[in-house]
Write a structure and sequence with these properties.
globular, repeat, seven-stranded antiparallel β-sheet, six-stranded antiparallel β-sheet, Riboflavin synthase, Elongation Factor Tu (Ef-tu), domain 3, 4 helices, about 15% helix, ATP_synth_asu-like_sf, alpha+beta, 2 domains
Length: about 190
Amino acid sequence: MVGFTPIDGGARLTLDIPFGSELSLGDSVAVNGCCLTVDALDGNRVSFDLLSQTIRVTSLGNLKPGSLVNLERAMSAMDRFGGHFVMGHVDNTGTIAALEPVGQDHRLEVRIPDELARYCIDKGSITIDGISLTIANLNGTLLEFWITPHTFGRTNLQDAAVGQPVNLEVDMLAKYVEKLFTARESAGI
C-alpha cells in the first residue's frame, strides 16, 4: 500500500500494482477481497475511492503504508473457472485467532461474527481477505484452515498477526438457498 488519504468520510487508497499498466479507469480489482473500481492510474500506481460504507464494513481502513494486500483482477467471461464463487462483496470482518507453522504448512484460525456462522459448513468455503479457503474444522464461530506453502507465500497471510481484522465473504450459494427457503416458509409452502 502506498497511501490512504481520508476524503469527506471516505478515502482514497493508492497501491502499486504489478499489472497496473494493464488496467483502465473503471476496471474492477479485488483488494483483500473487496471489489474496488479503478479511479486513477499512473503506470503501476493505481488509486481507488473508498466509500464510508466500504471503510465501515471492511478492514481496508486499517491498512498502513507498506501493508501487503491480496489482489485479484475481475474474471473475464471467457476465462476458465477454477475455484469457488467469489464476488468481492465483503459481508463483514472477522479476527485472526491463531496462525502458526505446522511442518511446511500453516494452521489458521479465524473468529467470525455470529450472524455469518449459519452460512459455514465443515469442508465448505469462505473467503478470508480475498483468499477462498476450505473450512477444515468448524467450532461455532471459530473456523480452522490449513494453508499450503503455495498459498502462504503468495498472499498477505505471510504478514498476518493474531488479532488482525480480515475481510469475510461467505458462500454466495448458501445465502441464496437461505433466501429461497425463507420465502417458501413465509408463503406457507
